[in-house]
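User: Can you fold this complex?
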Amino acid sequence: MDDLFQLNKKRLGFGLMRLPKDGNGKIDLKETSAMADRFIEKGFTYFDTAYMYQGSEEIFREAIGSRHPRDSYTLASKMAGWALSDDFTPEKMFEEQLRRTGLDYFDFYLLHNINKEHVKLYDKYDVWSYCQKLKRDGKIRHLGFSFHDTPELLDKILSEHPEAEFVQLQINYLDWTSPRVQSGGIYEVARKYNKPIIIMEPVKGGLLSNLQPQITEPFANTPASYALRFAAGLDGVMAILSGMSTMQQLEENVRLFSPFQKLSEDEMKAVQEVKKRIESLQVIECTSCRYCTPECPQKIAIPDIFRMLNDEAVMNNKEKPKNDYKALIADGKSGRASSCIKCGKCEKACPQKLPIRKYLENAEDSLM
Ligand code: SF4
Ligand code: SF4
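Assistant: Here's the predicted assembly.
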């Protein structure tokens, strides 16, 4: 059996959820291919996609699967329990994923976004047993799950499902003590069960790489590099996922992990200081996952508006978020924040459990 802790020696993983887009809003195949080529050329192997990442499994096939030997990379994908139904069974979803990616097996396969609601769906459709069968049949190599809930629930699931070989957790320095995300608590549970950890959102959807200079003044290097090194330096980590969108980001990350160096004691102190400064600004802890947007009957681009509100809190240039908001509405890319009818559908889909309705209440006033 593979030692999962050792399987991804370079630690960095390429998250295929925020890929570069062309002028028409479509994933840019040429740029994605160039980025993937560079990633592989530098000796990195781990790619991460999901059934729910729109166009991502298909672009994987075009940019990577059809252009690189099968043993030059590993792919993780995920089953979306909340998209299953009596007609759309786990078998059908899995077969569709193989078709989309052009592969005949996945190296890593995850039950996506387990929380107290979704856990019932994975039981209802017997997904755990189905995945164990897939493993026996050689269609998946390693089984795990991604998780957004409390340490108590994680403990319960890991004790009930020893077949889970690894876990994917949201871990970054800002969420470490957050009562909503509890990165520190869920990390400790995964360590207790000795499960290799894949880290998602190490820069919190870009928030930790996009801070104003007054906040990041204790850092001697880019804010993103501190966030990535914080997460990657934890014991038991198998991969750090970075949803890279540009070649520049990719080059910076590749450099940072060639080879990777843990934060020193002084650098860790700088991280704690920056954390304190961000917390004093009370930014919205949205990771831009976009699970909420298809639910909204008013077509409100919730994460884009939250990003603008955060920009307003942490950036020097206060006019920029206002102009961005005007353009978002004028281009028809979002309903107005004030058009929210408070139906609450977005909040049910939000893995961060954000009080979206409350945040939207004053957004229009702030951004106009
Ligand atoms: S509560 Fe508002 S933002 Fe959320 S889905 Fe309903 S209309 Fe959209
Ligand atoms: S509001 Fe929640 S669901 Fe929507 S993008 Fe942000 S974190 Fe994701």
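Residues 295-298, 300, 302, 340-346, 356-357, 360 surround iron/sulfur cluster (ligand 1) (CB under 6 Å). The radius of gyration is 20 Å.
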